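Why does this matter for the project? Reviewers at the last site visit asked to see concrete outputs rather than summary tables. In response, this paragraph embeds two records directly. Each consists of the residue sequence and, immediately after it, the corresponding structure tokens. Nothing has been edited or filtered.
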Amino acid sequence: MLFDEPLTVIDPELKWQLRSKLKALHRDLDLTMIYVTHDQTEALTFADTVVSCMTVAWCRAATPAELFEKPAHTFVGYFIGSPGNEHRARRSQRPTGAESTAT
């Protein structure tokens, strides 16, 4: 199933309810779901694996915990956490082009 920003313009209370229902549906049906979002809470709530993309050529696929602990790029480090995971982001900086494919 593909979801492309399904909860973007929904009331926050309804968004929380729908998020819970979608997570239960994912668990109960055991289907592969691709959920496109710019909302880190949604990404980290739903995901078994998160794919974070900065450009078409640079993506990182990992569990939410792996992205938080080892972001592998400042882009991912600043995206994860509130405020951004700056300490880990700086520590994980890679030279441009050092990681160009998903793991």
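We now turn to the second protein, recorded in exactly the same manner.
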Amino acid sequence: MRAPYGLSIIDNCLSCPVHEEHLFCNLPVHALQKLNDIKSTAIYPKSTMLFIEGQQPRGVFVLCAGKAKLFTSSSEGKTIITKISDPGEVLGLNATISNRPYEVTAEMMEPGQANFIARDALLQFLREYGEVAVRVAEQLSRNYYAAHEEIRTLGLTGSPSEKFAKLLLSWSPGAGNATEPTHLKLTLTHEEIAEMIGTTRETVSRLFSDFKKKQLLQLKGSTLIIRNKPALERFTRLMTAESGGISPLRIWSGLGFAPVALWQMWQVDFTMCSPTRKDDSLTAT
């Protein structure tokens, strides 16, 4: 069924074309039929708030199409984006299960479809289908570890350069030839990227410029090209070492660089925590 914004409505979980390993995907037929009975389907335009931080939990939203950003804000108006959610993910699960207020706001980043499941119906569904309840427990555990890693990145990472590099690596898939360029569709603004790593839009713009000069990334329109993932990983290790008080020479020597050659090739600006090569580029070895 066609819908506004050129979307195709997925109104039957039994015939859903998405067969990835998400929380409510690949369930037994009888469980999918029950899921069909308790969900309500809707199409949401860009910028729609599915739920708001501090609101009492009404239920969960199963994202079927489009992307949503989850973010939290301070009383001063500072915002941190905690996650960009893709199709197949269940939004509002932690709050709905615990019956505590939504800990984040969920906003559609583009037109999309989400299936809403009311809290009482979801809890009864979990009581009836133990396999689904186990999956929910596993997802809550993954949410906990993801939140822990987010806290480590924001609180313990030493510089915006390191946070930015780690974010780029998180976008790069693990499969395939690591030395081949990775092409990604960049849908985030510099302001949104800044909100993901806890910095300013101006800093993100400067980081893009710096990383392009180091030949770590390239931008072609809305396409982000990570030119060399191993080089980006080495750059991140160097940043981590510097912020942790470990000698960059020790790290780079451990990666196979001769000490003398290292200092001939590299000039390190410790005040900016940003290594620069004489030809202002970083390439794989």
